[in-house]
Amino acid sequence: MNINEQITAQQVRLVGDNIPEQGVYPIAKALRMAEELELDLVEISAKADPPVCRILDYQKFLYQRKKKAKEMKANAAKVVIKEIRFGPNTDEHDFQFKLKHAQEFLQEGSKVKATIFFRGRSIMFKDQGEKQLLRFAVELEEFGRAENMPVLEGKRMTMMIAPIKKK
């Protein structure tokens, strides 16, 4: 974005509310008008013919743009991931207990990462672990949906479950 003397065009189209009449002006007159108002001539659209300019306080403009970007970042949805871990031979009561926690996490809007860890020779039961993760996803169907199928990474099998958006 060019300002004041950085603008190279011979004529510019002035727009905005700081000028008496919008239209095409020679660059010298546009600069003089900006100077009289103690503001800056800022090029908004350089590709237009003639380039479009606006008379405004450039520092204030930059500040407001930065402030708006910060606000947008603050309003962006933050994704929280909660992890639930269990083994391939987890008992039914423990499974239900973990399931209840996962339901609470999904209802509050967090993603759930279900992890089955294999210790020692329990890696031989990886099909049992996969069945358990799939059952976990089916039990949570009304609260969230599985983002992917169970994936084995080393000695851990994981699956992500995202909450269902409420209308």
Describe this structure in words.
With 167 residues, the protein is an alpha+beta fold. It has two domains: 4-71, Translation initiation factor 3 (IF-3), N-terminal domain (Ubiquitin-like (UB roll)); 81-163, Translation Initiation Factor IF3. It is 35% helix and 28% strand. It contains four helices and nine strands. The protein has helices at 27-36, 58-75, 92-107, 126-139; strands at residues 11-15, 23-26, 40-45, 52-56, 81-86, 111-117, 144-146, 151-153, 156-163. Strands 5, 6, 7, 8 and 9 form a five-stranded mixed beta sheet that branches. The radius of gyration is 30 Å and the shape is rod-shaped. The two termini are 42 Å apart. The mean pLDDT is 86.
> What string gives the helices and strands in order?
EEHEEHEHEHEEE
Tally of extended strands?
9
Q: What top-tier CATH class of the largest domain fits best?
A: Alpha Beta
Mean pLDDT: 86
Q: How many separate domains make up the residues?
A: 2
Give the termini distance in whole angstroms. Answer: 42 Å
As a whole number of angstroms, the C-alpha radius of gyration is 30 Å
Q: CATH homologous superfamily of the largest domain - what is it?
A: Translation initiation factor 3 (IF-3), C-terminal domain
Under the CATH scheme, the architecture of the largest domain is 2-Layer Sandwich
Low-confidence stretches: none
CATH topology of the largest domain: Translation Initiation Factor IF3
